[in-house]
Specification:
By secondary structure, the protein is of the alpha+beta class. It is built from 14 helices and 19 strands. Strand 2 and strand 3 form a beta hairpin.
Length: 470
């Protein structure tokens, strides 16, 4: 195990100064989380730090430590997940590797102690007690409804997938070596105490996970103990390691993470192909052939200059473009995110109320779980592919495979990828925008030619539980 770097009680004044803005008095303690809407949930999660202060001073910049000393928050955090939950969870066909990892940091390296097949609780507890192994529980929101509620709201708030892992580490042990991640990290301390050390990033806003050696990372920039009810945030790329101190039976924390592959670079990779496709329709320069044997050349300096001029041409075109296509990132998010947490399985979600008619007033439901996308017709294999409007939603997504890296959460019976949603002619786009941008709208006022089209649009959305009739 890596050396601790001094007794906790003798933490240097410099380290204390670096954390002092985040350390809070008991009088500032927040109440439990507020689920009224995604904004209120996030504000209550980081309370008493203000939302605007968080994004101005901390987000993607530096760690934030909130030490609360609040019994109410500590009790609520404990309800999210605790060591005693494992016995019941192990009866639900958990598998090593997929659902649970057993590991320990040995000489600066991660040692995986997984067995084969299903997780046996008695064996799991034996490894925990005797081998001082850390239990890493993958994506507990699949089993714990309160975490489902939290992460579903955070996915609405960030517009990005939100995953989680629970780490349970016995006293005097460490599960993982110093490393950095490719995600924004929010940590809630649930049980016991955890000794944390954070270090200056070697790769700012890293795009991949990497282990760092002790001799490369230097001294910690932050060092502290997390106790039940405490909260910690740090940006991707922040090097960190944590151990459970002697004197506390074990530590349990949940790591909630987001913004993986969600940068401007990722957005460019997603948006530029559609932009080039649209621009090439009207710009003959983009339709001009590349030089003979260009793909076979070793020295492409001349072609690089030509590509540079085309990119400048593309930038000029972009200045006059009203809408960008980002269909792949949008679709990936909507296909793989959590369904709404309604207090029951979302598979039971069915249309309710009256059928929409031409004289009905309607309102969009689950706005945060649906999006509109203009794409080439996916069902027309002809050479000329018309553009269609697609409405994708996550109301029928599966909670049990969320963030598990499997394809079966979106696979249909024939094995092909399935996205939940609707397909309309391009002429329906303005009417859909009406519904999305209005608090309520009358069906007869939808921007479509005939009453039949207006009723069909409303009925289609209603059948997918996307609108309600008032």
């Amino acid at each position: 195990m890596p050396k601790k770097g001094g007794k906790h009680a003798e933490m240097g004044k410099e380290t204390q100064a670096q954390c002092k803005r985040a350390k809070l008095e008991v009088a500032c303690s927040p109440s439990v989380l507020c689920f009224e809407n995604p904004d209120s949930l996030f504000r209550s999660l980081i309370s008493p730090i203000k939302e605007e202060v968080f994004f101005k001073e901390y987000w993607e910049q530096k760690p934030l430590l909130v030490q609360r000393n609040d019994p109410l928050v500590a009790a609520y955090y404990l309800s999210l997940f605790q060591l005693s939950d494992l016995k019941e969870l192990c009866s639900q066909d958990l598998y090593y590797g997929r659902d649970v990892n057993i590991c320990r940091c040995v000489n600066g390296k991660k040692k995986v102690l997984n067995k084969e097949g299903k997780v046996n609780y008695m064996q799991l507890k034996k490894d925990f007690d005797q081998k001082k192994a850390t239990i890493q529980f993958h994506q507990p929101q699949r089993f714990k409804e309160e975490l489902w509620k939290i992460q579903e709201k955070l996915e609405c708030y960030f517009g990005s997938l939100v995953g989680s892992n629970v780490y349970i580490t016995p006293q005097g042990s460490q599960g993982l070596p110093p490393h950095y991640d490719d995600v924004e990290v929010f940590i809630l301390q649930l049980e016991g105490e955890k000794h944390w050390r954070l270090y200056k990033p070697t790769v700012h806003l890293a795009r991949e996970y990497n282990v760092e050696s002790e001799d490369r990372i230097g001294n910690p920039t932050h060092e502290f103990i997390l106790k039940p009810g405490d909260f910690l945030y740090f940006p991707r790329g922040t090097i960190h390691q944590a151990d459970t101190p002697l004197g506390t039976s074990h530590s349990t924390h949940v790591t909630i993470s987001t913004y993986q592959n969600n940068s401007w670079g990722d957005f460019l990779l997603d948006a530029i192909p559609g932009l080039v496709f649209d621009m090439a329709k009207d710009d003959v320069v983009l339709r001009t052939s590349i030089p003979r044997q260009l793909l076979m050349q070793v020295n492409t300096a001349d072609s690089t200059k030509k590509l540079s001029s085309l990119l400048r041409r593309l930038a000029d075109h972009l200045d006059h473009t009203k809408e960008l296509r980002s269909s792949d990132m949008k679709k990936d998010f909507i296909m793989h995110r959590l369904p709404p947490c309604l207090g029951c399985d979302s598979g039971s979600l069915t249309p309710g109320g009256k059928l929409p008619k031409i004289d009905s007033k309607i309102r969009l439901q689950f706005r945060d779980h649906a999006l509109i996308s203009v794409e080439p017709d996916q069902e027309n294999a002809d050479e000329i592919r018309r553009e269609m409007v697609y409405v994708y939603h996550s109301l029928k997504n599966r909670r049990d495979t969320h963030m598990m890296g499997t394809e079966d959460d979106t696979a249909s019976e024939d094995g092909t990828s399935q996205t939940h949603g609707l397909r309309f002619p391009l002429s329906y786009l303005e009417a859909l925008k009406q519904i999305w941008s209005s608090s309520t709208v009358n069906v007869k006022e939808l921007n479509l030619t005939s009453d039949e089209e207006k009723e069909n649009l409303a009925l289609s959305l209603w059948s997918e539980c996307l609108i309600e009739v008032l």
